[in-house]
Amino acid sequence: MDDLKELYQQMILDHNQNPQNFREMENATSKAEGHNPLCGDEITLFLHVENEKITDVSFLGSGCAISKASASIMTTLLIGKSVEMAESLFEKFHTMITTGEISEDMGKLTVLAGVHKFPSRVKCAVLSWHTMNNALHGNTNLTTTE
Ligand code: ZN
Q1: 94 alpha carbon – ligand 1 mean position (Å)
Q2: 52 C-alpha vs ligand 1 centroid, how far in Å?
């Protein structure tokens, strides 16, 4: 596979076209906004956390295929996970996206492993995760990848 094909795998294209959990959440326990000025990606992330468990995640926003697919895949993985698990996945994802190194238990997140070869796309992929992490820790200031 050439690099670009590896970057835009079918699952990424599917999530971009039909993003999961792309909706506003009325009973969110926290919410954060993120912006990647380099590409123009914008995201509003909603979280519902109960007893240290993420019971719902959703997002709204606009951006490139990578940012949207990354946010969509993230929401599908985080629903039902503990806060601790989400933090651990965030760290693993960050490592993969910057180095290409894949850890265990990353599931379909690995479709984004090719992103590390494209430094300009790394910020697109991590935007939703940074925003989620800020929402998780009550930091509702605008998240920016700069
Ligand atoms: Zn982007």
Answers
A1: 16
A2: 31
Task: Measure 113 CA to ligand 1 centroid, in angstroms.
Answer: 16
- Count of structural domains, the chain: 1
Residue 37 sits in a domain whose CATH number is: 3.90.1010.10
Distance 115 CA to ligand 1 centre (A): 11
pTM score: 0.93
The answer to whether 34 touches 57, Cβ cutoff 8 Å, is no
Give the distance (Å) from ligand 1 centre to CA of residue 31.
Answer: 21
Residue 91 sits at φ, ψ, to 5 deg, of -65, -45
In a domain, 8, yes or no: yes
pLDDT, tens digit (0-9, with 9 covering 90-100), for 18-56: 999 999 999 999 999 999 999 999 999 999 999 999 999
H or E segment and range at residue 130: helix 119-136
129 in a structural domain:
yes
